[in-house]
Every structure is written in structure tokens, then in C-alpha cells.
What we know:
The chain is an alpha/beta fold. The chain folds into 3 domains: 53-396, TIM Barrel, CATH 3.20.20.300; 415-618, Rossmann fold; 676-810, Immunoglobulin-like (Sandwich). It is built from 22 helices and 31 strands. The strands form 9 sheets. Strands 1-2-3-4-8-11 form a 6-stranded mixed sheet. The chain has a 6-stranded mixed sheet with strand order 12-17-16-15-13-14, with helices on both faces. The protein has a 4-stranded mixed sheet with strand order 10-9-7-19. Helix 5 (66-77) packs across helix 15. The protein is globular and about 85 Å long. The chain starts with a helix and ends in a 5-residue tail after the last strand. The protein binds 2-acetamido-2-deoxy-beta-D-glucopyranose (12 copies). The site of one 2-acetamido-2-deoxy-beta-D-glucopyranose (NAG) has 3 residues, from loops. It comes from Neoarthrinium moseri.
Amino acid sequence: MASAKSLLLSSLLLAPAVSAQAYDSGSRNEDAFSYVQPLNTTILGQYGHSPAVFPSPNANGAGGWEAALAKAKAFVAQLTLEEKSDMVTGAPGPCVGNIYPIPRLNFSGLCLQDGPLSIRVADYASVFEAGVTVASTWDKDILYKRGYAMGQEFKAKGAQIALTPVAGPLGRSAYSGRNWEGFSPDPYLTGVAMEESIKGLQDAGVQATAKHFIANEQETMRNPTFNENGTLTDVTFEALSANMDDRTMHELYLWPFANAVKANVASMMCAYQRINGSYACQNSKALNGLLKEELGFQGYVMSDWGGTHSGVASIEAGLDMNMPGGLGNYGMVPEAGSYFGGNVTIAVNNGTVDVARLDDMIVRIMTPYYHLGQDVDFPTVDPSTADLNTFSNRSTWLREWTLTGEASRDVRGDHGALIRKHASEATILLKNEKNVLPLKAPKSIAVFGNDAGEDTQGFLNQANFEYGTLTAGGGSGTGRLTYLVTPLDAIKARAAQDGALVQQWLNNTLIATTNVTSLWIPKLPEVCLVFLKTWAEEAADREHLSVDWNGDDVVESVAKYCNNTVVVTHSSGINTLPWADHPNVTAILAAHFPGQESGNSIVDVLYGDVNPSGRLPYTIALNGTDYNAPPTTAINTTGVEDWQSWFDEKLEIDYRYFDAQNISVRYEFGFGLSYSSFELADVAAECLAEGLTTAAEAQPIMPGGNPALWESIYNVTISVSNTGEVAGATVPQLYVTFPDSAPEGTPPKQLRGFEKVFLEAGETRTVGFELMRRDLSYWDVVSQQWLIPTGEFTISVGFSSRDLKAVTTITPVSA
Ligand SMILES: *[C@@H]1O[C@H](CO)[C@@H](O)[C@H](O)[C@H]1NC(C)=O
Ligand SMILES: *[C@@H]1O[C@H](CO)[C@@H](O)[C@H](O)[C@H]1NC(C)=O
Ligand SMILES: *[C@@H]1O[C@H](CO)[C@@H](O)[C@H](O)[C@H]1NC(C)=O
Ligand SMILES: *[C@@H]1O[C@H](CO)[C@@H](O)[C@H](O)[C@H]1NC(C)=O
Ligand SMILES: *[C@@H]1O[C@H](CO)[C@@H](O)[C@H](O)[C@H]1NC(C)=O
Ligand SMILES: *[C@@H]1O[C@H](CO)[C@@H](O)[C@H](O)[C@H]1NC(C)=O
Ligand SMILES: *[C@@H]1O[C@H](CO)[C@@H](O)[C@H](O)[C@H]1NC(C)=O
Ligand SMILES: *[C@@H]1O[C@H](CO)[C@@H](O)[C@H](O)[C@H]1NC(C)=O
Ligand SMILES: *[C@@H]1O[C@H](CO)[C@@H](O)[C@H](O)[C@H]1NC(C)=O
Ligand SMILES: *[C@@H]1O[C@H](CO)[C@@H](O)[C@H](O)[C@H]1NC(C)=O
Ligand SMILES: *[C@@H]1O[C@H](CO)[C@@H](O)[C@H](O)[C@H]1NC(C)=O
Ligand SMILES: *[C@@H]1O[C@H](CO)[C@@H](O)[C@H](O)[C@H]1NC(C)=O
């Protein structure tokens, strides 16, 4: 394999010669930096160097955007050079990102808004469940409906572009600070989640943005550091470089972004950090090569805020829009100029950038705009947005913005009911001894924990406050609540129906240090509900995988005296749950970040109005130290390039790692309980394609890549039965084990199908999983394509990654 990889890299290195200077004098052109290295066979055997891929491919409207592409071209034809430069450069204004209007052409500009679970800079908007939460539903319909409802709110507030959904971070490390904004460390599950979310958002008329492209797997050192005065040319450390091989790139990190492109996503946001030595927003291999050439992406690449580190080099490498446009920290200083803006005008005039490249940038920006009909009757930007926007408040505006229409529009509709349903469907029942759940009209309930009650520091969820329930994490992915149903409120309301006694203790320090029998009256409560929370936020990685605020001690203290301790976690993601085997901890529910209807959604599950059907979108290990691939949090050297993160675990992240290394876990990927019981039987596989060959027929590239990769070639069917007493949903999951002829490093099994199936008690249904060519292929680094290995595949269907019930084999291509 090593020699094969060397061959590949050397062939890529023979691409047209381009020197660093040709791309951007004075800027930090990492692409060219790695490219102009003399041929070094030691380095060639490794990875961490990004080959140059030029020029940037032009959009051609493939995938149904032909008519919109023609309109975009007609629009571009009317622009002056200065207007063209404005079209690719963010400017301060009412939204988090803004493109100036061109009134002459009746173009009212573009409004870009955060984020993954809410339109963040807004009033009277909903706070939806987080990405990790909705991923826990394993429900394609819910993923779509959430996207659609969010899209409606962005549109009604006048935002053409929603900065969501997230597939980077994928979740390489359990500790990464932004995993909760995305879905799952499994690329297949995240791929489906991306596709459904994007379809939902775009069907509602807003442009979705798949982010952060790519390998944004940790927060620590995601950006460069500058000298004490913040001078952009005086770098102390370049940002972390995420270094991975080509196969890992394709089979893990690029996989869900391919789904995004397949779903015709309007835009891609490139990441902050470097990839194989080159900044993500000027990495020509990633943007020109992988995204625009291999995947046939037709939309535009926008930078993360301040992720642009050069002008010409970034433009040539495939960046189409610089956000938020200015220089300085996070690009927030527009008066200091821009790598784009006026510099684009200069670069075209001095012959460095071909105007055809600039035109393609704008064509890519305007094609989805026309395709989604945003040129006709799109709502104005809600004027209240400008007052709430702290990113570029009015004092920073360089031009006046005319804001019209009703201010403080209420865009929430009936989404509260939707969020309540989605969050209860997302709640994962991890333990339920003696069937203590659902609750059977208890008359005495004790509620514990600082996560149960009202938020005490307001609703702007940007800090890890001690008192109050957690509905979302922090940073650009948070949301501003307009109301909050706390667990305590909802429990009190529900318990009142039974005339129950409800007592509460919300001070974790007090609970953890007190003999709780001295607290409650008049005797042992029938159930003790413990609410725990775990914060995470953008720009910081998690320091541990425990629950916060002495939560582990709170559980131990309660369980010491209460033989029916039911624990609910509101968490950013993985918690190790060291007390999970405590005999008095009778039930555990992982509810993640549920959004504004938190209390109602958990009460629906606790009391059995909703039968839990959430499934873990990641693995819960026995110990935090069991996880591999930790973030790189320190280096001992001072070289400007020295922050490096080597993805040496390759494909072995999350369950792929625990399976490959045969490590016991506490709760495996895909696990979750129900109040009912289910069985699987009669697995069968039907081949849908004749004469399959190892390599796919090369067809013209469409969004998503070679269309042959997306063709269903097998249909695996299985019958699923609800053998319990109550109606409910389960999630049969299909895992593929590749034949031995697949290259070394292929994980023991990989998720390649799942379906959420609702069944009445006693009902049986047949479920089909269509396997696409990509599902049965590995990425061959030598021939640079997906190949089906010869020999027999094992197809296992079960209720989790370690609860496989039915097995069959298929041989798509004989040896
Ligand atoms: C090749 O790269 C290796 C590893 O970085 C380095 O030690 C060696 O000096 C380089 N050789 C040449 C000829 O530059
Ligand atoms: C930072 O600015 C101060 C004040 O202008 C100057 O004295 C100092 O030398 C600067 N530091 C660096 C590293 O340039
Ligand atoms: C061009 O970019 C440089 C940084 O490379 C910046 O200092 C300058 O202000 C920019 N010019 C314009 C017109 O934005
Ligand atoms: C052309 O303009 C760009 C942008 O300001 C600049 O980076 C580049 O060095 C200029 N090239 C020449 C040859 O003047
Ligand atoms: C101008 O734009 C508005 C909406 O932005 C649209 O309704 C109207 O038809 C447009 N007019 C022309 C002449 O294109
Ligand atoms: C929480 O309990 C601890 C221990 O009893 C006490 O010191 C602290 O003041 C309490 N905090 C509040 C806000 O009451
Ligand atoms: C806790 O309090 C109960 C009731 O007062 C008492 O029976 C028990 O011994 C106490 N436990 C400890 C460890 O002091
Ligand atoms: C479980 O709770 C009961 C009180 O209901 C208590 O007597 C027992 O010691 C507890 N068990 C453990 C292992 O703490
Ligand atoms: C807890 O202990 C009480 C009193 O011994 C008993 O009635 C009840 O069934 C126990 N609850 C559980 C869940 O074991
Ligand atoms: C977790 O592993 C570490 C390192 O092996 C060990 O020190 C620690 O005791 C373990 N914790 C638990 C709860 O097993
Ligand atoms: C830094 O040095 C310390 C002490 O020698 C060592 O334990 C640690 O592993 C080093 N860290 C890195 C990232 O090299
Ligand atoms: C796969 O099987 C399911 C269940 O029988 C069926 O509904 C579906 O149409 C099948 N798909 C194809 C392509 O045959």
C-alpha cells in the first residue's frame, strides 16, 4: 500500500507547475508551499501534504440547475467589476453575513444567518433540538421535517442562507467541542442526516450550507495565533493541520459531504483549520479537487468567519465567497480592508485573476438563489435583526442598509409542538430495570439537580451557567429561547393530574454533600428524578466526558438512599456514566440538547405518552480513556507550522475502533431501549443489478460524483415484529462486513442502512434496505475510485452495532 500511495502522490505532484509567488505574494499560500517542496520520497510515503489542483472547475448547472444557471449568467453579465467584487465579499450589515444589494438590478442582497438549531440572531424564533439530538431519532422523516420547519423560520426572517447543517466535525474525537452541532461520528448516519436536512431547508426556500469543510475535528488551535498586537502578517502559530490519508478522507470525512452535494446543497462553508498542511479555505485539493471536480458541486464555497487567509490564492483554490469579508480577528474589521473586495478588483485589473473565475464565483452564488426562487417575493430582512446582531452592529456599517417590513416578526408557527415530538422521539432509554418506566402515576416524586429548573441567567445560551436546564450548547450554533418549558415545570404539571407530591432540590453542591434522607418528606419517594447537564461550545474542546457540576456525585448521593433513581442527561454528547451499574439507578435517559420544549418532551417519555425509540448515534465507552483520537491540545515546540494532528487511527473512530480492537463498551453505537420488545426475522438479499463489476462505469459527473455510485444494487429485506404489549418504534440497522479482499484497515463492520419502523403491539412489517454501490465499495487510492472488493460480504441486521440478529451473505463480484 505504501508504494501505491507514493505512486499516487507523485503523479499528483506532476500537475502543472505553479509557484507560491504566482498565487499570492505576501499571503500565506500553504497550497503552493507544500506543492513546491522538492520531491522527497520520505515525505511521499507519508501524508500531511496537500497536492495542488488547478484550475477551479466552472459550474455547469448539472443536477437540474440548468435554468437557474442561465439566469445567474445573465445577472453576472450586467455587473460592473466593482459590483462583482462586492458579490463575493461579505460586508457589515444586519445579518451575521451580508452581501450588498444592487438596487439597479433589483437585487436586494443576501442575508446569511446562523445556525444549526435555530436562526440565532433573531427574536420570536424557535430553538429546535440540536443536531446530535435529532440524529438520535434515526428518523429520516423527522430529519426532513426539522429542516423544513427551520427553513420556514429563516425565510420568514428574510435570510436567504442558513448556515446549517454540520458534518464537520464528524466526531473523530469524543472530546471535540462542536460534535453536538453535527449528527454522529458514523458517516452513513450523518450522510443521511445531511441529505434530509438539506432537502427540508431548501424545500422551504432557503439555501442550506454544509459545514465545515473539512476535517474540522477539534476546536483547539482551529485558528492561527498572531503576535501580541494581532498583526495578521506576524503569525505565532499557523492553525492546526488535520493530516489524513486519501482513503480516510473519502470513507469517513468526505462521505457525508458527498450526500450534501447529492442533495444539491447551495453552499459549503470551508473550515478554519489546515488540511494536510494547507488552510481549508485555500486548499485546492479539497475545494477544486474533491468538492468541485470529484463530487461535481454546483454551488459556492464560503469561508468560515475569518477563515480566509489570502486573496488570489484562495480564489484560485476554489473559495467563492469571503465571509464576513473584512480583515482582523474573525474577519470582523471591514475598515482594515479585505483579502477580497477591493483586492479582487485590483487582481482582475492587474491580470492576476481571470475575470472568468470571478464570474464563475458569482454564477455559483446566484444559481441556487434563482433555483430556489429567491428573486421573487422573498421576505425582507426583519429590521429587528440589525439591533440584535452583535457580529456587525450598526456602528460598523460602511454603507446604509434599508430595512423594511414588519419588525420582530413571530416566525415560530406551530413549531413548538413539532420540537416537543422530535425531542421525545430523540430521547434514548439506556437502562430500565424492573420496568420502572414508564411511571405509573407516582404519588411522591423527588426532583434533583441544577438541570431541572429555570434558567437563572437569561435565555442567551452563550455561557455555562450553574442553575437552569440546558437546551443547547454555546457559540454560533446556539439559539435564543423565547420561552422554555423546564423539566420541573412539566413534571409538576403532569404530576398534578395524579395529585402527587413533588419536592425539588436544585443545588448540586448541597445534594452531593448531604444525606438526602434528611431532605425529603415524609418517606422514601416513589421515584427520584435526577437531571444532569453537560456543556460544550464552539472554540473549546471538552476537558472531560463526565457530566458537569458534580453530577456524578449527585447521582451517587441520591442513589445511596433512593432505590428508584431515574437519571436524565441533557448533554452535548458522550458521557461515561460511571454509576450506570448502580443497582438503585433503575433508569437512564440520554436526552441531549432538546430545544425549547425540553420538559414536555421528557415528561412524554417518562409517563409513557411516547414510547422511547432514540438510539445512540455514538458509543459510550466504559471509561473516557478508552476513546482514541483525542484532540491535539499541546505541542512542545515553537515552530510556526508545528500544530499538527495526525489522523493515524484512519478509519477507526467510534464503533469502528472499539470493534476493531475488541474493546468492551458500556452502551454501544445504535443502542436504545423501548417500553415494548421487537424481533427480526427472514433476512433476504436481492440483487438489483446484473453483471456487477468491481469498478463503476464512468458516467458524466453529477452532484454527488459518479451517479453509478448512488445506484441501488441490492435490496435487503427483513421482517420486524413488535412482540410487546405497547405500540412503538424500533430501528433495525444494517451493518456490512467487507470480504477479506478489501484493503487492510477496513473496519469489521459499517452501518449502511437503518429505518425507523413504527409498529402496533403484535404487528409485523417487512422493511427494505437499498444498498447503493458506494455502500459496498472502498476508496482505492491508486485508481482514485470506489471499488467493490471481490468475494463474499456479510450483511448483518440488528437493533444495535452489537446486537445483530439476522445475517446473510452476498457476493456482488466473484473473485
Ligand atoms: C525528506 O523528508 C524527511 C522527513 O521530513 C527529512 O528528514 C529529510 O531531510 C528530507 N529529505 C530531503 C532530501 O529534503
Ligand atoms: C506591539 O505594539 C507595541 C506598541 O506599539 C510595540 O511596542 C510592540 O513592540 C509590539 N509588539 C510586537 C511583537 O510587534
Ligand atoms: C488588500 O489586502 C491587504 C492584505 O493582504 C489589505 O491590507 C488591504 O487593505 C486590502 N485592500 C483592500 C482594498 O481591501
Ligand atoms: C495583483 O493584485 C493582487 C491583489 O491585490 C495582489 O495580490 C497581486 O500581488 C497583484 N499582482 C501584481 C502582479 O501586481
Ligand atoms: C424585483 O424584486 C421583487 C422581489 O425582490 C420582485 O417581486 C419583483 O418582481 C422584481 N421586479 C423586477 C422588475 O424584476
Ligand atoms: C448550594 O449549596 C451549598 C452547600 O450547601 C451552599 O454553600 C451554597 O451557598 C448553595 N448555593 C445556593 C445558590 O444556594
Ligand atoms: C442518613 O440519614 C438517615 C435518616 O436520618 C439515617 O438513617 C442514615 O444513617 C444516614 N446515613 C448516614 C451515612 O449517616
Ligand atoms: C439503595 O437504596 C436503598 C434505599 O431505598 C438503600 O437501603 C440501599 O443501601 C441502596 N443501595 C445502594 C447500593 O446504595
Ligand atoms: C424501593 O423500596 C420500597 C420499600 O422497600 C419498595 O416498596 C419499592 O418497590 C422499591 N422500589 C424499587 C424500584 O425497587
Ligand atoms: C479509567 O482509566 C484510567 C486510566 O486507565 C484509570 O486511571 C481510571 O481509574 C479508570 N476509571 C474508571 C472509572 O474505571
Ligand atoms: C511534551 O513534553 C512532555 C514532557 O516531556 C511529554 O510528556 C508530552 O508527551 C509532550 N507532548 C507532546 C504533544 O509532544
Ligand atoms: C426493497 O424492499 C422493500 C420491502 O419489501 C420494497 O418496499 C422496496 O420496493 C424494494 N426496493 C426495490 C428497489 O426493489
